[in-house]
Amino acid sequence: MTTPDGAAAQAPAQRKDATARPARRGPADPVRALMHHHQNLCAHAVDALEIAAGLEAYGVTDRTAARFRHRDVFSLAEELYARVPRAEPDGAPAAESTSTPSPGRPPAPAGRSRSVRGALQLLPGAVCLATVAALASSDEATPLARKAVGIAGVVLLALAVRLAVRTGPLRLRHHEPRSRAAALWICWTAGYAVYGDWLLGQLLTGGPDLPAAAPRPAVATAVALACALAPAAGCARWFAVRGRRGLAASRGLGELAARTRPLLLTATLLFLGALVALLLGAGAVLGSDGAVAVAAAAALGVLLFLARLLAVHGFPEAAAAGLASAAALEALALSLVLIARLPGLPPLDMPVETLTTAVGPAAVPAVACTAAALGLLVHGLRTLTGACAHSPSGPSEAHRT
Fold it and tell me: Are the CB atoms for 184 and 133 separated by under 8 Å?
């Protein structure tokens, strides 16, 4: 039986324990609800970084992680990875889920596969140069034969570009339906870069008088853009490798963004320098159309590079939107010139004619592609600096829960 003196002695001790252990607010295990909500993501993740990328794709930030008693998203992802058991594909043990070479079929050496990918990146430039050489050597051939050589060269160049972008660092992580629309905008902008200046000049002078007026392509621009696939692949790989290193070394989304923004700017500048060198070299050999044409081709190359980089890292919608905006501005310039020919309408082509007279026909693609490229660069500085852009599974995989 407790005496009154004993009860008086226990009262201060109880009050001391109450002040030492403050009352908990909220659930005792706040992470449990998050585990159930992202069960599929956590169970199929190969590491904690993949979970962090998925959480970021769902909008979880470091401030959100603080509500779950974690300092950042990476710490929260580590707890989820440790607590959620791994899913075993088709009932097979997790250790056997990794791919192993089949008997009698050893894997190809890494050096050989890299050399094959490098050759494929150089293939479009080689095909384009071979086509230009074949057309130059067929001056005495009939127009039909020259047209056949040109068509064959365009078809082979398209196949070479298709092979180059489907292998190596330029390969898309997930095939999206929007990539087909983006391919149409790429064909338009590339075709305008080769024939657009000639077409706009003909329209402004009342033409073109087909078939008497033979199209005059920008050969140097076509060769330089085809050869630029190789440096584009190199810069994309450089950005991807260092982005994954930054993801592994960062302890927060803010730190990751601070590490990745200079990488994106550096990769873009490296590609721009390589492309300008190719444009100047091709212009010196094949004939240049002026500084404005070089600027327009450089702007188009940077636009295509940023669009592919966004699509590779899981943002095809932004890539397609940037390409579509450039194509729309170029098509608008041609349309205004044609609409201005209708009787009773004001001179709608006045802005296009003024710009072309002052700078040249290449000013139209230069303005259109520069504006679209700057928009994609600003968007990339926000999206390509997140964890989901550098995880083995991008946003498309992260949302499959």
Answer: no
- Tell me which DSSP letter residue 288 carries: -
CB contact set of 224 (below 8 Å; sequence gap of 6+)? 275, 278, 279, 281, 282, 283, 297, 301
What percentage of the chain's residues is helix, strand, coil (to nearest 5)? 70, 0, 30
Dist CA 299 CA 293 (whole Å): 10
DSSP string across 29-94: -THHHHHHHTHHHHHH-SSHHHHHHHHHHTT--HHHHHTTT-SSHHHHHHHHHHHSPPPPGGG--G
**pLDDT beneath 50, residues of the chain:** 1-2, 4, 7-9, 11, 13-26, 90-108, 395-401
Measured in whole angstroms, how far is the alpha carbon of residue 297 from the centre of its chain? Answer: 19
Report the half-sphere exposure of 329 (CA within 13 A, side-chain side).
Answer: 20
The amino acid at 118? G
CA–CA distance, 185 with 63 (Å, rounded to integer): 39
Structural tokens at position 220? 């140097």
For residues 376 and 268, give the distance between their C-alpha atoms in angstroms, rounded to a whole number. Answer: 11
User: Whats the size of the chain, residue-wise?
Assistant: 401
Summarised one tens digit per residue, pLDDT across range 307-343 is 999 999 888 899 999 999 999 999 999 999 999 888 8
- What's the per-residue H, E or C state across 184-225? HHHHHHHHHHHHHHHHHHHHHCCCCCCCCCCCCCCHHHHHHH
Q: Give the H or E element holding residue 136.
A: helix 110-137
